Amino acid sequence: MKASMKVSVLALAALWAGGALAQGPGGTGNPARHMENLALLLDLTEAQKPQVESILQAEHAQMKALFDQARAAGGKPDFQAMHAARTQISEDTVTKLSGVLSTVQLQKFQALQQMHHGYGHRGPPPAGAPPAPTSN
After folding, report:
1. How many Å from the N-terminal Cα to the C-terminal Cα in the chain?
2. pLDDT tens digits, residue range 92-107?
3. Residue ranges of the domains in the chain?
4. How far apart are CA 63 and CA 113, in angstroms?
5. Rounded to an integer, what distance in angstroms lies between the CA atom of residue 87 and that of residue 35?
6. Are 82 and 71 in contact (CB under 8 A)?
7. pTM of the predicted model, to two decimals?
């Protein structure tokens, strides 16, 4: 990855993380503002904005339904099954976005996703991604 692309991705990740933190616990916040930030970070066109928003809203609804279902079942949740379902939903979202975003935009989105969720939540980084930082 070129140095300028790395700098851009890091700057985007910092902005994305700031927006996520501003939402507060539970992910509540201003969804319109969050979408504005994402549109800016990914340099979305006016045509792409509603498409991306729709895809991400569908992902959010699926995730919410998954957690609501686990909560309604009571007892101890099957964390492996939950992780597998979350991973599948995320992969489906990336597949849908690949039909809307350019290659560079999709790479930025995936970098933002990794920075937002951390490598530990989604398994190992994809091939070619930098290793996760370790503490000594």
Report:
1. 27
2. 999 999 999 999 999 9
3. 3-121
4. 15
5. 22
6. no
7. 0.65
